[in-house]
From TrEMBL:
UniProt record similarity statement: Belongs to the thymidine/pyrimidine-nucleoside phosphorylase family. Type 2 subfamily.
Enzyme class: transferase
NCBIfam families cross-referenced by the UniProt entry: ARCH_P_rylase, PRK04350.1
Listed GO CC annotations: cytosol
Protein's name according to its UniProt entry: Putative thymidine phosphorylase
Highest classification ranks of the organism: Bacteria, Pseudomonadati, Pseudomonadota, Gammaproteobacteria, Oceanospirillales
Record-annotated membrane-spanning stretches: none
EC number per UniProt: 2.4.2.4
HAMAP family: Thymid_phosp_2
GO biological process, one term: pyrimidine nucleoside metabolic process
Organism, scientific name: Oleiphilus messinensis
Gene3D superfamilies linked: 1.20.970.50, Nucleoside phosphorylase/phosphoribosyltransferase catalytic domain, Pyrimidine nucleoside phosphorylase-like, C-terminal domain
Protein keywords: Glycosyltransferase, Transferase
Sequence ranges assigned to domain Pyrimidine nucleoside phosphorylase C-terminal in this UniProt record: 437-503
GO molecular function: 1,4-alpha-oligoglucan phosphorylase activity; thymidine phosphorylase activity
Length: 511
């Protein structure tokens, strides 16, 4: 009688975060267990186990005695090449009853939210089940109580930092605004003033750059829990990738499915932000909500509702949250893409004469508001007003004196290195085909253009935006420059721009 095991191989198949196992339809394990395509299968390797989705293979891709793992499954199980793995049907996921109930309008209880998040964190949900949960929470379907329940469950599912400081500062931007890379500048200003700011950030999934992608151009961002703690102890701050320290691991899985479905949930967004801030050990958080016709948040009403939910959820966990509703009508800075945004960050920190002034001013405003919060003020929601003059003066002096740049270098070196960004060799400047006034800039089209050029996977790819809203241009003036690491990617991006010319719209004729 054949034993219920197969030998594992690693073919190098990238399924992002989804755990997938591949086996022959006619292998003895598949036949004896009655597995079919998309079965949920528990894999046991020594003392380690995981649940994966089964893909059935026909033909000679696999021998009868082998099973293949996706890269995500291989990282999870950490087997040796050829090691034995045992297979059986995964148990039913009981928490799915709470998801089905929510789809039919039944509120999520604290216990139900905990059960769902625990199962997601343990890898028990298939992508289909995750999609059902995302749909159940989409739009404004989550109440404040449900959002608090999900947030608490996410916090409990990951690691949590505790710092020896009464006030631990943090900031976040809800996103949707290309180039808005204020975080590295703000963190340097705050830490240079002797305050604690353990900043963790995300990578991009569908956007051309996340803060972690941009910082990875300049330094190492994959820090272990202990390494991150040491960097913060040494420098007062850090600029690390949140995924490497597992602060809210279930959230990373949920975000992947939300992006794939292009479904936004107000409550889930809030749970994502607040859970990671609480897990990072923060006590005072400033949240930037860019609002504009092509930003993630498109109306003042939505921004106000989101602000209220962020503040209320933070308060449930003792977190002091202040929000700023900012201008989201156009990208910030010149560059869109990891290396191009890193270049802009360095220009501001180094106070270069050609540094993007909008990135500088936004960073100073956020830093000033955080400095004010550190003194015990500014704990109410804002509407974009500048912080008190003394705090703005302090933030500006910290930047202009070079102390912020010195602290930034110190943080980077503590994380492993400090490197200068390099831009892609293949580039093309797109010029105005008529004269007039720049009347609109489409954030989504420009973000897509930078992504098609290769960002964020190609760190040196992206684009430079040479004009701003209200600028007067004449025929032949440069509008933007696209950068790519390969000629094919450059042409692919430019073809997209030809079919989407309203990334930068020229309105009325200039006088």
């Amino acid at each position: 009688m054949l034993e219920n095991y197969l030998h594992l191989i690693r073919p190098g198949i990238d399924t992002h975060q989804e755990l997938v196992v591949y086996m022959r339809q006619d292998c003895h394990v598949c036949r004896s267990e009655g597995f079919t395509a998309h079965s949920r299968v528990r894999i046991q390797v020594g003392e380690r186990s995981a649940v994966a989705t089964l893909n059935i293979v026909k033909g000679d891709f696999l021998p009868h005695n082998q099973a293949a793992l996706s890269e995500a499954a291989w990282r999870k199980l950490k087997p040796e090449e050829g090691e034995k793995a045992y297979f059986k049907h995964a148990p039913a996921v009981d928490s799915m009853s709470a998801v089905r109930g929510k789809l039919y309008g039944k509120p999520l209880t604290t216990a139900a939210a905990k059960s769902v998040i625990e199962d997601i964190n343990a890898g028990h949900y298939s992508d289909i089940q995750l999609a059902a949960f995302v749909a159940a929470c989409s739009g404004n379907r989550l109440t404040l109580d449900e959002t608090v329940a999900i947030t608490g469950a996410m916090i409990d599912a990951g690691q949590r930092f505790k710092w020896n400081s009464e006030r631990v500062l943090d900031k976040h931007c809800v996103g949707g605004l290309p180039g808005n890379r204020t975080t590295p500048i703000v963190t340097a200003i705050i830490a240079a003033n002797g305050l604690v700011m353990p900043k963790t950030s995300s990578r991009a999934i569908t956007s051309p750059a996340g803060t972690a992608d941009t910082m990875e151009v300049l330094t190492d961002v994959q820090l272990s829990y202990d390494r991150m703690a040491e960097v913060v102890k040494q420098t007062g701050g850090c600029l690390a990738w949140g995924g490497s320290v597992s602060l809210s691991p279930a959230d990373d899985v949920i975000i992947r499915v939300e992006r794939a479905l292009d479904l936004d949930s107000e409550g889930q967004l809030v749970a994502s932000v607040i859970s990671k801030k609480v897990a990072a050990g923060s006590t005072h958080v400033l949240i930037d909500i860019p609002t504009g016709p092509t930003a993630k948040v498109r109306s003042p009403e939505f921004a106000a509702r989101l602000s209220e939910l962020l503040i209320g959820t933070g308060a449930a966990f003792g977190l002091k949250v202040k929000t700023i509703i900012s201008d989201g009508s156009q990208p910030v800075g010149m560059g869109i893409g990891p290396a191009l945004e890193a270049r802009d960050v360095l220009k501001v920190l180094q106070c270069q004469t050609d540094s993007p002034q909008d990135l500088r001013s936004r960073s100073l405003a956020i830093a000033a508001a955080l400095l004010e919060m550190s003194a015990g003020n500014g704990q109410r929601t804002g509407t974009g007003q500048s912080a008190g003059n003394e705090w703005l003066t302090l933030a500006t002096d910290t930047l202009d004196s070079g102390r912020a740049y010195q602290k930034f270098q110190e943080i980077c070196l503590a994380q492993g290195r400090f490197s200068e960004p390099e831009l892609a060799a293949h580039r093309r400047t797109v010029k105005a085909t008529r004269g007039g006034i720049v009347s609109s800039v489409n954030n989504r089209i420009l973000a897509r253009l930078a992504s098609l050029a290769g960002a964020p996977n190609a760190k040196a790819a992206g684009l430079d935006l040479h004009v701003r809203l209200g600028d007067c241009v004449t025929l032949g003036d440069p509008l933007l420059t696209v950068y790519a690491e390969a000629p094919g990617e450059l042409e692919y991006a430019l073809d997209f721009l030809m079919s989407h010319p309203d990334g930068v719209h020229i309105g009325e004729e200039a006088v």
